[in-house]
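Z., the sequence and structure:
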Amino acid sequence: MNNSSNKMEVRIRTLICSLLTYFILLFYVISINVESIEAVLTSKSSDTTDGKSSWPSNNRQVASNFMSEKPYFEEGVSKNVTSIADDVAILKCRVKNKKNRTVSWMRKKDLHILTTNIYTYTGDQRFSVIHLPGSDDFDLRIEYTQPKDSGIYECQVNTEPKMNLAVHLQITADGRHRDKYVIPTKYDYKAPQAQIMGNTEIHVKKGSTISLACSVNIHAKSITWYHGDRIVDFDSSRGGISLETEKTESGTTSRLLLTRATVKDSGNYSCIPTSSIPASASVHVLNDEYPAHLTTNAAECITGNFVFMFILPIVELLFRPRLIHYVFSCIS
């Protein structure tokens, strides 16, 4: 009995010691956590009181956004971009935690929405979005930049309230780069040749619609239209200018439409696909009358028809009796 009672006492003492050790460790852990919480609260209070923070500002923003899972613009992106005319400008925008929200680019001077996600909503094909599937980047790409492209562009996310990142673009033109275009005279003979569909000499009346179509047998990245030596401005105060682009297995087709034609719309129009030889058409807008050479041609055509319709039957009637007499004399 003594041995069994001794063993029981030892077990009880061991259990008590284990419980005491467990409670001591638990108390120690709780005390450390309480001190940490008090330190965080004290730090937050000092931030509110003094307007200063012991955390770096970007770390606070990242931590806050991560916890709330709201979208935010990654810092470090350049908000001032400078490029030269006829070059390519890229405006960067990186959106974290985008999820199912929409990212758009807007031109501030006319509040024109240029792109939404990967889609382009402007007739000016110089604008496009660079976005790889799964990435956070929605960069705006502008080809053949012109001084008129200078200004503020906003990258926007459709949150409530709306988030926006303003990027200022400055296009400079030096002695080598201008806002005019000179069609080169030499090309790689292996390059694809663009073609104007239909007549290359077009006459339309004032107030009607000018329709030009150009095709090239490759999937051109972009097709740019020039009126004379300047890019066709789809956002000009003139209005009524639109562009349709169609890509098929055989290549790319671009259709330029100008409604309410005026005399100022006359001139040479060049279709310039990327990495291809351009094609041109000449447009003449007439003030309700036809040019002299067309009038002359029409008069000649009417005169010719008059000869065939009236003169030839008379000649036939005059000479037919003699022809019949000659035939009978030969038979007899």
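DSSP finds three helices and 20 strands in the chain. Confidence is low (pLDDT under 50) at residues 43-55, 175-179, 295-304.

Let me know what you think.
H.
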